[in-house]
Design goal:
This protein is of the alpha+beta class. Helices cover 38% and strands 32% of the residues. The chain has 2 domains: 67 residues, Alpha-Beta Plaits (2-Layer Sandwich); 84 residues, YajQ-like, domain 2 (Alpha-Beta Plaits). It has 4 helices and 8 strands; from the N terminus they run βαββαββαββαβ. The termini are close together.
């Protein structure tokens, strides 16, 4: 029976590459000369350090561009609050990895409401969709791509 999994994952290696690219951009930009600004990575989290808040917004734009260039959807980014410590400001960035149970239930409800002849079940932080026909599964993928969800989705383990 054909099936596939709906997941939301961020590859750690490509995320590291995106942060390295953003750090190189900071080093070469004229408006960041003499500024103590950088990106630090801790697993799938990052911390932005700068001297002023407006520089943090510029760094956020740089990070988004680097993520897009590395084929990571910027919807996976959750920006934290701006914290001031001494003469530096910092902001944490958390990358969403895995489907939360609320979003997984929403995906299952969307699939059931579509009246397609498939079954969907939540398995941890992913949703498995099975059906008799490959075309039905492709319709589910098209349906979910058209939805406005707060998190990027990937479709993998497509099996016949």
């Amino acid at each position: 029976m054909p099936s596939f999994d709906i997941v939301s994952e961020v590859d750690l290696h490509t995320f590291t590459n995106a942060l390295d690219q953003a750090n190189r951009i900071i080093d070469t930009r004229f408006d960041f000369k003499g500024v103590d600004a950088k990106f630090d990575r801790d697993g799938l989290n990052a911390v932005l350090y700068a001297d002023a808040e407006f520089q943090l917004t510029q760094m956020e734009d740089m990070l988004r561009a680097a993520l897009i260039k590395n084929k990571i959807d910027p919807l996976a980014m959750n920006m934290g609050e701006v914290e001031t410590s001494g003469k530096q400001v910092k902001q944490s960035v958390t990358m969403q990895n895995g489907l939360e149970s609320e979003l997984a239930r929403k995906i299952v409800k969307i699939i059931k409401d579509s009246k397609l002849k498939v079954q969907s079940q939540i398995q941890g932080d992913q949703v498995r969709v099975t059906g008799k026909k490959r075309d039905d599964l492709q319709q589910v993928i098209a349906l979910l791509r058209d939805q406005e969800l707060d998190q990027p989705l990937q479709f993998n383990n497509f099996r016949d």
